[in-house]
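Continuing the batch. This is chain 6 of the set; chains 1 through 5 are on the previous pages. Same settings as before, nothing changed between runs. Recording input and output for traceability.
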Amino acid sequence: MIVVRALLLALLLPCGEGGEDVGGALSVLEKLLGFDEESLAKRAFAKTVSLKEIVQRVRLEEPGRYLKGIPEGVERLEGGYFIFGGVNEGCEEGDGLRKEAVSEYKVGWRNGLSVEERLVVYRALIVSCESYEEKSLYGKRPEECEEGFLYSHIWGDVNDFLGTDAKSHVELVEQLGQRYAGRPLKIGDVFCGGGSIPFEAARLGFDVYASDLNPVACMLTWGAFFLVGGDAAQREALQRKQERIAEEIDAHITALGIEHDEEGNRAKAYLYCTEVEDPQTGYKIPLAPSWVISKPKKVIAVLKADREKKRFEIEIESGVSEEKLKEAEKGTIQKGIVSYVLEGKRYSIPLKTLRGDYKDASGKSRNALRQWEKSDFTPRKGDLYQERLYCILWISKATGKTYYAGVTEGDLEREERVKEYVREHLGEWQAKGYVPEDEIETGQETERLTREKGYRYWHQLFMPRQILSGSAYMERAKEEAGSF
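Output for chain 6:
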């Protein structure tokens, strides 16, 4: 946003005949953007930089006037040290003087200091920095600061240079508009994208016109103006509406019986993996680049071969050792190679071999994957890639705490219930616009979805649970659309 503001304001600043006053215009622009040193000191004040950090860096003329916690008779040395005895900095160790780190003292502001007195310290901090980048790191961004405070000192210089009497950016834009055009200035952005240019232009007081061919861009711009840019009452009303919709959808999901286990624990997240069959062994291999589920909680998935079913059971272990955590970091798919250990022997096979990758007569990459049809939202039996639920993050009904657990028969039954529900309603949801039904457009990246997965429609990028909950949100959002 600050870049947009810089562009818009720079367009309004005169540089004199032949551009001879570029320096004056640049100085004014820096003030209008909060880049001048006084503004930088105020930005540091707004961030409340640690006093110890300031004292370790800055030499103050009278530190006791502003700060407490520094003993009397102390000189500041470079490197964040104080030295006792009132001698100069050139003293050497062994002079009988004691050198101590600033960190050993509890430095604080003296009581009753005004904002102006505190700014003296922040100005010294900014002066001690060599580059703008270094200075800016100590402060908030201009758009994060209260404008009346940040820009209060600039209007004398700005008005002297421009011949205005503004007290704010909006007043300045209004006065310059009357000077240049005899009316408020207009900004038109015909490819507005997410709306950053029209949004910031409106904040500065321009009349704004914005459009875009992309409906998503139009939606984002509308949201920037009427939701983000709306008043507090409007945002509070929207938040209450969102909370009510979320509660209604939660009640709907709960009634379906698909999110709670037999003990009343609530699922918070579901972890899925892809599974392929390796013709070398006939085993179904679950694929993941890592089997570490949570490093902080030391939770991993452990694969255990099941000879009878020719697959791997996936067990969840919590609180494992660092050694086991390290072992689990290497999964069964690395750089396009499926690799796993079975009965003490390691097997490897490239995914492209399993897919049957080849080049056609024109040199285009193709493979033997089945291309998904519009009604597909899960793999069919016989597809190379199958989807497998292998872990659930639960919220305990008893304690409210979360924990990871492997998948039970009850979990799988609920998973099938979700798929059946989606199967029954998918066509209806697509017809009503709750779920996307468009084909994936051709493009360098989007073609990978078809080539590497067989996906042809956008809804195939989502799991059944996401389709179900997403359609519920879309249905309620459309019902409420007229009241936004």
